[in-house]
Amino acid sequence: MHPLDNVIWQALSTRQTQFAESYDGARRFIPEVTLLAGFRDRGPEGYAALAGLLGPRSTAGIFLDDPYEPHAGWEFVAGAPLLQMVCENGPGSVTARSAFDHELVELGEKDSPEMVELTALTKPGPFGSRTHELGTYLGIRRKGKLVAMAGERLKVPGHTEVSAVCTHPDHLGKGYAQTLMSEVIKRIRERGETPFLHVRADNTRAVTIYERLRFRIRLRGHFAVLRKI
Q1: DSSP run (H or E) holding 24
Q2: Which of 59, 82, 105 is where one domain is finished?
Q3: Same domain, yes or no: 72 and 118
Q4: pLDDT digits (tens, 9 = 90+) for 78-121
C-alpha cells in the first residue's frame, strides 16, 4: 500500500501513534486534536469498529474513495468531494516569497484560541484546540491579529501534509497563503519528505494556488463527517 492510501489510518498507525485512540480495526485522533478517524476495513466491520471508539452522538471525519453510503448506526452530517494533491518536484518548485514583507511567526499553545477562531471563520477543515501539536504552524499577524496561517497535519512515512491554509476574508489577495505555504513546504523538503495536501474539489481558488506551487492531483475521493446514532 502506498503511504498516502487510506492516509488517516496510516498516519495513526505509523508516525502519529501518540495521538491515536484505537478499538479493533479503527483509530481516531484524540478529539481535542482533530475529529479525523480511519479504519483498516472500509466495510461494515470498519464502521462497527469506529462505533466502538465514539460515544453517543459523537462525530468523526473520514476520507473515502467514493461518496458515503448509509450504514446502520450512523448519521451523515456533511461531506464533499476531496482532492489529494502531491508536490513531487524538488525544492526549486517552491515559489519564492513575494515582494511583500510578510513576517512569519511560529504559532503554538498560546495562539490556539486565535487559530481555532480563524479556522472556524474560513473553514479549511477540522481544527481543534490541540491541532497545533501535530507539527509546525506559521502565521501572519496584522496589528497584532492573526490574519493568515498554514501548518502540518497528517504525517506518514516520507510524507507530511500541508494543512489549515487559511486567510481572513478581509486580507485576501495579498499573497499570504502562498508565502506561508512556501515556507511550510520548504521546511518539509529540508527534512527529506514530500509535501501533500487535501482540498475540497470545488475550492477552485485554493486549487489554483496549489497548482502554482506545483501540486498535482494524486487521488479523487470524498470527505464525510458522520455522527454516531
Answers
A1: none
A2: 82
A3: no
A4: 999 999 999 987 544 444 444 456 789 999 999 999 999 999 99
